[in-house]
Structures are given as C-alpha cells and as structure tokens.
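yo, Molybdate transport system substrate-binding protein is done. seq:
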Amino acid sequence: MTHPAAGPASLPRHATAGPADSPPTAGPTAGPTDTGPTDTNPSAGTAGAGGTGPAVRLHRLGGGAVGRRVRTVVGLLATAALALAGCGVDRTGPAGDGGPTGTVTVFAAASLTESFTALGRRFEADHPGSTVTFNFAGSSALATQITQGAPADVFASAAPRNMATVTDAGHAAGTPTVFARNQLVIAVPEGNPQRLAGLADLARPGLKVALCATQVPCGAAATTALDAAGVRVTPVTLEQDVKGALAKVKLGEVDAALVYRTDARAADREIDGIDFPEATRAVNDYPIVVLADAPNPTAARAFVALVRSAAGRTVLTDAGFQPLSGP
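structure:
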C-alpha cells in the first residue's frame, strides 16, 4: 500500500494521491497478406484497433522474386503488429481470476485514516497486483479537489453535505451509500488535568479550546452540539480537519478539542475522550461513492464493496464507528 506522501502546500497536511495508470491503447490488428498474383481491391485495407488506424493498401503483386519479397515484408509487418498488440497490459481491468489490479486512489475524510489504512492492507492482500493510494484530508478540501479535476477513484466523506458538492457537479458514478456514523467527544490530555465533564466546561475562562473550521464536518457538528447545549465557546484555533484539532491537544497547545470518537480512540495512549449528551444531536453520516472519471473503476467498485462488507464493518466497529448494514 502506498503511504501518503507530502501534499501541496495549499492543501491540509495530508498527502494528495497521484493519478492511477491509464490503460494502454490496444495495438493494431494484422492486415491480410496477398496470397498470389491475383487482383486485390486497390481501396481495400485493414484499419487499426477500433477501425481508427491507417488502412494498409495492398496493390496487385506480380510473380517472381519481387512479388515474394513484398509479400514477405507484409507478412512480417502483420506478425509484428500481432506481437505489439499482445504486449499491452490492462492495468485497470480484471486480472486473470476476475479480480481488480492496478492502483486505486481513494480520497477519504481524515477521520477515516486508521480504519481505511487497515482496509487498504486487506484489499492488497485479497487482490495481488493491486495498490491502494490514499489522500486523507478534510472532506470539504477533498470535494474541492475532485470538482477541480483531481484524479481519484473513490470518495468517502464525513458528511453528506460535502458529498453533495461532488454529486451535484456530476462527478459521482452512482448514488452514494452511507456506510458508517460517527459522533463527537471532548478530547483532553490523558488524565483530564482540567477535570472537564461536559460542554459547559469549555466556556470556562482561560480554557484553551480547539475546534474544526465550520466548513468541515467536524466543525459543523461541533457548532450543532454547542448550540444544542446553549454553550458559546471562543476557540483559540480553527483547524481544517479533525486530525489538526487533535494534534493541538497532543502537543499541549490547547486544553481540549471537540473531535470524533474514532480519533480519540486511535490516540488513547495520549488522549482521553469525554462523552457528552449533546453529541447525539450531531451525529455525522459517512457516504462513499465511486467517481465518474475513476481511472480504475473495477478496483474502485471492489474497494467500496470491501468497506461495506462484514469484514469492513468489523474494522469500522473496532475503530469506534457505528457501521451500517452492507448490501
């Protein structure tokens, strides 16, 4: 599995994935050879693959050495054309056993980092010859990248609103499917040194709080939860994805942050997650879809099927998600 590499400076810290290999074009088919000194239609020829290649016009060949030499050359060219056609390797089509091969590029919400990384390893083990490349970032940033033409096979968002940005622009190959749900907790350093118990404590004077920006799903959920509790918080930082908010707590730069339960669980040796009742008012649905311009649609469909399978639900449950039933 390809590990995320450093992305462009304009994006969140997470990597952008490179495009998947495009399938090579088919080689030309062999044209007929003259079988003797008989008339051949001067306008006849054999086109390349798909009928788009140049025609090979076979003129009448006389007998003798010249005719034999020309016929030999034509035969060799036909043989070479067949050999070239056999060299093409479909990197995005099914393998000999009908399974996917090649690279599948998945754009996924940052909160899916741990669970999708595990599923990527499972996918590669199940489908030898396949590689999963991830781009983990805030769902709003990913949606923008897709609508601006970034090559990707699959999009998994942390909220339907950001998925709608992609579907409304015509970039989805079908109808997105919700595969999991997530909700917020208050992330604090291990041991909860500030003795926080609920959202009301986040308004305590002098307490430093990190939130996600409102345009990303974790920020929108935080706003909904705080409104439900009637609590007003002035954050010291607004992060572009949930990993950024969590990092502020890990680094000791803030006293608390509102993050997803799954992210707090992934950092359980450094972070404690505090449940609060208003979180049930801000549950996020996670939709997934194969993209319309997917370079590798076969592998894309297979990856989505894995996410929605019993094995996928087990991984999501272990990460702290509430998975939904598969097909």
